[in-house]
UniProtKB/TrEMBL annotation:
Residues 175-356 form the Tail specific protease domain. Pfam families: PDZ_2 (PF13180), Peptidase_S41 (PF03572). Keywords: Hydrolase, Protease, Serine protease. InterPro entries: ClpP/crotonase-like_dom_sf, PDZ, PDZ_sf, Peptidase_S41A, Tail-specific_protease. The keyword Hydrolase applies. Belongs to the peptidase S41A family. This is S41 family peptidase. The lineage of its organism: Bacteria, Pseudomonadati, Bacteroidota, Flavobacteriia, Flavobacteriales.
């Protein structure tokens, strides 16, 4: 998957907003009554007809309709959105949890399609494609020196399951060109990044979004952790902007006892629907901790709220985003759709955690910047809590509504005041590209390197720190990294490990210095 280079670190928060926009979708059919006739509807139709028939210039009325729909939805709430036909397939694919393709992570490097890494067990890896390879042709279609957009590349590399494609590859490390024939296959898009043990009897599971496949991925990971001896589980929902409500509910059910309330929804007609836990949970007794931050939203808040309000475990981190609205996807008949807010959800204690949305623009979504300016990222007491919105958990503890889940244990942002930009920079895709390009200069040097020797290579000198400093300067970014060498090298080392070895080893390195994990394990 190509990742566009982004040079402003705060964009991480904006990226999470895309997940929030997807919302916690109710899997129910659209209501035909939504499309009832009215005088205003007829007025709009007549206006479009008049423009098509009589307007002096040729106008694409489809674009006018799109603007009209967006304008109407903008008057509602920030999560009622229009989805153009061209975006439907990509969103559905992401939320379904798989796609059909050749199985590579890639980006356009110097106008050449470079393979960052083939996806394990995918068609490309099976065909012998390696990190650093350039794909020159797909069948007879030239892919280099073309300035192809991401969407174009996706459409070229994707296809029907079982369909064949002939790729012409240039392997720089061997200075040779060759062809491979492979068959496209179903490629999973993981929503559960990792499930590993982080201490004796302590398991860790990270969920990046709630897709159709998330519950099964989670259950597989949780089952393995139990087999590995986990008596305690940490569920990491940081940067998780949400997704399907049903997936979050199913995961909560694994930890709650029969008939404990998970979530309630209430629609325009005041109809309340309550979802209770069943007796099928496989982890109803072990200790549970949920990690959240300012970009944990929607379905993440449902899961965190269910654990917190039932006094099933502790919520650790920083106040979550504050999205308590439920959307239903409704097709518009031309391949496009809208996601319309049809209900509010409430945690078991009765909290609505939807934050105010008078501002429906980008400021609504940029929680990191607002909370940084208020000081809330560093001091728990800076969070604005409405005393009038007090609720009680199952055991009588006070919790608050009105704008996100407030954690039981506060952990400030990782990085001192003045270092926020560096931390976000090192968590961005820019590090991914830098490491790829460093490896690409001399892959033979790293071909058979051990994990221990790699660590010595990265940490023994300031070579890679200095190279990275030059790299970001050439990219137009100006950071004073001199006083933050340790954190830069820490993230660089982890990314080298990810690209040369695997995700599991990468997470073991990252989590070792994670402040929230340290807080949980310190007990």
């Amino acid at each position: 998957m190509k990742m566009n280079k982004v040079y402003f670190p705060i964009i991480i928060a904006v990226a999470v907003a895309i997940g929030i926009l997807m919302g916690s979708k109710l899997s129910t059919p659209s209501d035909p009554a939504f499309f009832t006739k009215s005088a205003n509807k007829n007025k709009l139709n007549k206006l479009i007809d008049l423009i098509e028939k009589d307007y002096v210039d040729t106008i694409n009325t489809d674009s006018i309709v799109d603007l009209t729909v967006n304008g109407i939805l903008a008057q509602l709430d920030p999560h009622s959105v229009y989805i153009p036909k061209k975006d439907i397939a990509g969103i559905e694919q992401s939320m379904r949890g798989d796609f059909v393709g050749i199985g590579i992570n890639f980006y356009m490097y110097n106008d050449s399609l470079a393979v960052i890494k083939p996806i394990p067990f995918g068609p490309s890896e099976k065909a012998g494609i390696k990190a650093g390879d350039r794909i020159l042709f797909a069948n007879k279609l030239q892919l280099y020196n073309k300035k192809l957009e991401t969407d174009s590349l996706f459409s070229i590399l994707k296809g029907e399951e079982g369909s064949s494609v002939k790729l012409t590859i240039f392997r720089k490390s061997e200075n040779r060109k060759f062809a491979v024939n492979l068959k496209r296959d179903v490629i999973p898009i993981k929503s559960v990044d990792i499930a590993i043990m982080v201490a004796d009897a302590v398991g860790y599971i990270k969920i990046n979004r709630f897709a159709e496949s998330t519950y099964q991925e989670f259950l597989k990971g949780l089952t393995q952790l139990k087999a590995d001896g986990a008596k305690e589980v940490i569920i990491d929902l940081r940067e998780n902007g949400g997704g399907y409500l049903e997936s979050a509910v199913a995961i909560a059910d694994e930890f709650l006892k029969k008939d404990e309330l998970i979530v309630k929804t209430k629609n325009k007609k005041e109809l309340v629907s309550s979802t209770l836990a069943t007796d099928k949970g496989i982890f109803e007794n072990g200790k549970v901790t949920v990690l959240i931050n300012e970009n944990s939203a929607s379905a993440s808040e449902i899961l965190a709220g269910a654990i917190q309000d039932n006094d099933r475990g502790a919520v650790v981190g920083r106040r979550s985003f504050g999205k308590g609205l439920v959307q239903r996807e409704m097709p518009l008949g031309d391949g496009s759709a809208i996601r319309l807010t049809v209900a509010r959800y409430y945690t078991p204690s009765g909290r609505s955690i939807q934050k105010p949305y008078e501002d429906k623009g980008q400021n609504y979504f940029n929680e990191f910047e607002k909370r940084f300016e208020s000081g809330e990222l560093y001091e728990k007491d800076k969070a604005k809590i409405a005393d009038s919105l007090k609720f009680k958990t199952k055991n009588g503890r006070i919790v608050y509504g009105g704008g996100g889940i407030i954690p039981d244990v506060f952990v400030p942002f990782e990085g001192k005041h003045g270092e926020e930009g560096t931390t976000l920079l090192m968590q961005s895709g820019l590090v991914n590209y830098f490491v790829f390009e460093q490896l690409d200069q001399n892959r033979k040097k790293f071909e058979n390197i051990s994990i221990d020797d790699l660590e010595k290579e990265i940490k023994s000198t300031y070579l890679y720190f200095n190279n990275f400093n030059q790299y970001i300067s050439k990219s137009g970014l100006f950071f004073n990294l001199g006083s933050q060498k340790d954190i830069v090298i820490y993230y660089l080392h982890a990314e080298f490990v990810r690209q040369l070895f695997d995700e599991t080893t990468y997470f073991k390195i990252i989590l070792k210095e994670d402040e929230m994990i340290k807080k949980v394990l310190k007990k």
